[in-house]
Structure to design on (327 residues):
């Protein structure tokens, strides 16, 4: 049987509501790419993101533009030329990794020339809400060693204070999702330092990055929406202290590994993050995140229902993916 590629849209309910500065959602809608060859199937998952001009429909259409090439044997290196970085390429690239691993009967980490993966400590994300609501979330999860708090609206100072009081022992990451401005960034960074925040993600809109060269960084500042691929690094290395690498931005594990290597060469510290998706979407990122300074692969923890089998989470520790899931 010749190689075949198929695309499926799936929905997984979120436990409650997930809110950031750009809006709320109650389900994770993902696009799954499956590539079969000799009765062996490889899968990859992506989360289309409207912030980057993506939709479920556009991503499915993008994947179908490479269907013929993939079915005629195009590999991951060819895929990088056929599709731009983004969600569509992420799903196809990771399906190819999974297929290669299964056909070779070797784990994906070995094919990638990486050390054997171990468990990782992931952040747990607190959804944006009132200071009181976020304090309630923090109290519920104050046993976790690392909390990531979504900010980016009026009242962020009060939110940081409330979370810190509710989780005095947890390390904190602040994610403003481009929600701060030239008016409040310096004051907010000073408050973040006062409450021992370990990292601030993407405080400013991506087109206002240059302001970061003119202000102090009392807390390390991490690029997220501003960094997608290698082409961004030369400019960002003088503005940011760290980069958040997400496979849905880079376009899969192949390009994610390249981005990490180049970012490290420029002295940037590494965070590996995710969109809200299932264990299938997190699995290749677990390989990418080995040894990263900050890991945020909590997508499945935010769901009411995950895939079976999924990643194994014990508290905030996530284990490498089992072969039946991916890789």
């Amino acid at each position: 049987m010749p190689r075949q590629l198929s695309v499926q849209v799936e929905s997984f309910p979120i436990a409650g509501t997930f809110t950031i500065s750009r809006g709320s959602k109650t389900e994770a809608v993902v696009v799954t790419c499956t590539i079969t060859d000799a009765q062996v199937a490889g899968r990859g998952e992506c989360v289309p993101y409207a912030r980057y001009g993506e939709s479920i429909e556009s991503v499915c259409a993008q994947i179908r533009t490479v269907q013929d090439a993939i079915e005629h044997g195009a590999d991951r290196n060819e895929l990088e030329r056929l599709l731009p970085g983004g969600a569509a390429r992420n799903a196809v690239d990771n399906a190819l990794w999974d297929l290669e691993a299964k056909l070779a009967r070797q784990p994906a980490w070995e094919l990638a020339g990486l050390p054997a993966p171990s468990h990782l400590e992931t952040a747990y994300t607190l959804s944006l809400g009132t200071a009181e609501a976020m304090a309630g979330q923090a109290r519920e999860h104050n046993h976790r060693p690392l909390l990531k708090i979504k900010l980016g609206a009026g009242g962020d100072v009060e939110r940081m204070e409330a979370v810190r009081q509710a989780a005095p022992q947890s390390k904190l990451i602040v994610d403003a999702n481009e929600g701060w401005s030239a008016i409040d960034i310096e004051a907010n960074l000073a408050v973040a330092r006062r409450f021992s925040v370990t990292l601030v993600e993407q405080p400013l809109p991506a087109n206002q990055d240059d302001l970061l060269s003119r202000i102090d960084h009392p807390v390390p500042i991490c690029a997220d929406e501003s960094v997608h691929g290698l082409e961004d690094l030369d400019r960002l290395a003088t503005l940011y202290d760290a980069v958040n690498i997400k496979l849905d931005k880079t376009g899969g594990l192949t390009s994610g590994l390249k981005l990490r290597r180049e970012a490290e060469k420029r002295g940037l510290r590494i965070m590996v993050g995710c969109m809200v998706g299932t264990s299938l979407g997190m699995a290749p990122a677990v390989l990418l995140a080995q040894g990263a300074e900050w890991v945020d692969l909590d997508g499945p923890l935010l769901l009411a229902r995950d895939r079976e089998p999924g990643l194994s989470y014990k508290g905030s520790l996530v284990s490498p993916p089992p072969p039946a899931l991916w890789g």
